[in-house]
Specification:
about 80% helix; mainly alpha; single chain; transmembrane; about 60 residues; membrane; about 0% strand; transmembrane helix
Length: about 60
Amino acid sequence: MADDFDRQFTRFSRRMEKGMILAIVLCACLLMAGEMLLSFEPLRSTLVETERLEGVMHRP
């Protein structure tokens, strides 16, 4: 009985570990893609509001 539980737990934990590694790799790739997009001036000025407002005085 304990052997069956150990096998099931090992199989479950391997699947979870693979899923977590995949999620980490996916997040890292998305982060790198986002940073590359922000390196292009036309896209950066469109995506980042601070770039458009930089140097513009706010008048209440």
